[in-house]
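Consider this record:
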Amino acid sequence: MRVLYLSQYFPPEVGATQTRAHEMARYLVAQGHQVTVLAEVPNHPAGVIAPAYRGRWWAWGRLDGIHVLRLWVITTPHKGFRERMLFYLSYMGMAILAGLVLALRGRRWDVIVATSPPLFVGFAGALLSRLLRVPLVFEVRDLWPESAVALGELSNPRAIRWAGWVEAVCYHQARAIVVVTRGIQARLRERGIRPGRVRLIPNGANVEQFQPAPARAAALRAALGLGDRFVAIYAGIFGVAQGMETLIAAARLLRDDPSIVLLLVGDGPRRADLCRQIAAAGLPNVLVQAAQPRAAMAGYLSLAGCTIVPLRDEPVFAGALPSKLFEGLACGTPAILSAPAGEASAVLAAAGAGIHVPPGDPAALAAAIRRLHDHPAEAAAQGRRGRAFVTAHYTRHTAAQQLEHLLRAVVTQ
């Protein structure tokens, strides 16, 4: 098959969206398919375009056999509403333009895949699908604008109505809709979308890349000066949805225990503010590290006594299933899930691989960290169960196989 894959975010940028899109596309190429990805020029989440791409409208590249066309976007380190809209809309416009120009130059595709959010990626895919008469598979990793409204990122009634219209266009144009959680699947059913058009392909982990790495963990412990302290790690985006203030408040409750340290690894719009909070509180038990390449993350997750997976106390997150949950478990590290009870907590309970605590409750989070610190045998057993569970049920390889089968079915309809 010839696949046009629209993903605004793509490696070398780091994040769940980038990883899922890259691994899906890489698998398709390995199976003999031709994949062209339309992605933004690298800038996320800092909002600064990498020097090699400045002053260019677009640039071709290759990554693991994938043809990648990187597109100029309007971006800035300041992430206000206006700036975000310009960021999303500039990618949408460039993706539509690039798809049409490539088609005029003779490029042909059998299927278009568009992954959202941002929702405007889906709209670009829908318009290209209609103009080029190529079937669209629309992937929904988060319900937008619902989540944006819940987080206070979208409040203007007119903008909400317009976003709802864009969402409806994407659903209407798609030949098939991929969702990553049962919660999203249920919400689409409530909206009247025929169940036969919706396919569940959940998040998971690359269990070859994410696996226990004791040697790398030992080297990192030495390099970071962690000694034999118990490490609770958060690795991911420092964003609004994570409610990371709860982690800082939990660190305050643990500050008098020198055997426990909180390690925060990542970047994002809340990073500077969180660093100011840590400095103002004078917390010696919090260490912040910059975002790391994915190849390094197994070492970081393996050095930890537990991973923390936080989400804010919003009903929309009861249906979330973060990929970082699976990556930590794949490394044999138990998880503390600080999120609304729902799909992720059910998966964690089924795995028997960690502790679920109410979101926004620093005392409960601190108590869970202490429990795993005080019961190392129990924590080790949870880690082993987590690795086995992810390997059996939530691998990226299986997800990519499911996507390939779906694309074949769509193309042959």
